[in-house]
Amino acid sequence: MKKIVLVLFVGLLGFSLTAQEKTAKIKFKTETIDYGIIAKGSDGVRVFEFTNTGDAPLIISKVSSSCGCTIPNWSKDPVLPGKTGEIQVKYDTNRVNPIRKAITVISNADTPTKILKITGEVKAEGTK
Hints:
Layout: H1 2-18, E1 26-28, E2 32-39, E3 45-52, E4 60-65, E5 70-74, E6 84-91, E7 98-107, E8 113-123
Parallel strand pairs: 2-8
Antiparallel strand pairs: 1-3, 3-6, 4-7, 5-6, 7-8
């Protein structure tokens, strides 16, 4: 009787391990973008590229920034396994100051929350 229970237990354990749920995984090319030193009023758009390295469609449900001076934009369509996507970030370069902002990405990936960063400095024309 003990052998039968042991065989059933091992069989169920093996079955449950093979029946694991598929998950999406998000892999960013880089998690920090450095603007460097840029002039006031210059182009503030940068792009974070990512790949779904999982085996289920990736759905990004929300992207938010740490302040209103940084506006994220992304596709609401699912990113299929092996495919790439992007999150566009536009920083208001009419503010002369250092750039230290965080962008929070929420998705159905195995790591549901990712923090991306932008850094750099905006200088007025003619300053070093």
